[in-house]
C-alpha cells in the first residue's frame, strides 16, 4: 500500500477529506502511478489502491473503488495521463476508460479533454515526453476546476435554500454519496449541506442508506460524521414516513447525467424521492457541475442506464469488500433468484424544483434554461 501521508501534487486547496488522499498522482522511482482511496473498504478501513496502468484503473472504476460523476471525470483524465506517461497506447487507453461506466457522462468528458490535450501537443511535434506532460497538466487543471466548481455550487445551493425556505434551519434529505469522495472539492449536494451546517442552519441531514451497495450508509454517514454534521441514517423505504411527518424541508441529490431536456439520471432510488417530494410540496434540488450536462442526450429515455450484477441484490458483501461465501457475499435470496439491478433511475424535469450548478441555478427546469446555462459555462475561463 502507498504511504497515506504522502502529499498531493495537484497544487490547490484540499478538500475536507484531503488527509485520505481520495485521488492523487504520485511519481515513485519505478514510475508514475494514480493512487485512489478504495471506497469499497469504507467505513471499516482507509486503504489505498495504487494503479500503474489503465486496466487496473478500469477495474477500480467498475468495482466502485472510485465512483461519483465528477471524480470519475477527474479519474478518467488522470488515466489518460498515466497511459501517456508510461508509454502505453493513449487511444486504446481512452477507449477503455470511456467505456468503463456508461451512464456517468463526466468520465467520457474527462477522458476526451485530456486526450485532446495530449494529441494537440503530439501534433505539434513536441515529442512523447512533452505530450505526456501536457496530458498531466490538463488532468490537473480539470481536478482544480472541479474543486472550484464545488465551492460555487455550495454557495448557489445555500442561497437557493434561503430563497425557498427563508429564515429557518433545515432538515435535508439526501441519497447516495455526493461529498468529497466524489469530487475534487467538497462535493455537490453534500457540499451544500456542509455549507449550511457551517452556518449553523442545519437541523438534521437525513441519509438514505442507498441499497443495494449502501453508499449512503457507508460513505455519506462517514463523511457526515467526519465533518460533525447532525445526521440520521434511514432505510430507503422509510423516507415516505419522514415526508408524511413533515420532517423533510428539502431533498438534495447529485447527478450522473443530465439530459438536454433536464431529465436527471442519478443513483437508483432518486426518482421515488422526487415523487414523494412533489406530493408533499417539498423542494427537490439537483446539484451537479455543468460537466454532468449532456446536451447530446435529448431526453431521459435516451440515457443509457447501467445494469449491474444481480449478486449485488441477492447477496450482502461486507464493508471491507471481503467475500463471506465463495466469491460472493452473504446469500439473502434463494439460489438462482433473478434480480433487477439498475444502477440509476431517471427523474423527469417536471419533478425537479431546481438544478444547481457552478454557474447558478435554473428553476423551473427546462431545456432552454439548461442550454443557456451551459452556454455561459463554455464562455467562462477558470483560473
Oligomeric state of the chains present here: single chain
Poorly predicted ranges (pLDDT <50, ≥5 residues)?
1-16, 321-327, 379-383
Task: Let me know the number of strands.
Answer: 16
Main-sheet strand order equals 6-5-4-7-10-15-16
Q: By helix and strand content, what is the structural category?
A: alpha/beta
Largest sheet: 7 strands, mixed
The averaged pLDDT comes out at 90
The share of residues in helices is 25-40%
N-to-C SSE string, H for helix and E for strand:
EEEHHHHHEHEHEHEEEHEEHEEEEEH
Shape: globular
Helical stretch tally:
11
Strand percentage, roughly?
15-25%
Query: What is the CA-atom radius of gyration, in angstroms?
Result: 20 Å
Structural account:
The chain has 383 residues and is an alpha/beta fold. 38% of the residues lie in helices and 16% in strands. The protein has 11 helices and 16 strands. It has helices at 54-62, 69-85, 90-98, 105-123, 128-164, 189-198, 215-226, 239-244, 270-279, 311-314, 367-378, and strands at 23-26, 33-37, 48-51, 170-174, 202-208, 231-234, 250-253, 257-259, 264-267, 284-287, 293-294, 315-316, 330-331, 344-347, 354-357, 360-362. Helix 2 (69-85) packs antiparallel against helix 5, helix 3 packs antiparallel against helix 4 and helix 5 crosses helix 6. The longest helix is centred in the middle third of the chain and has 37 residues, at 128-164. It starts with 22 loop residues before the first strand and ends in a 5-residue tail after the last helix. The relative contact order is 0.11. Mean pLDDT is 90; it is low at 1-16, 321-327 and 379-383.
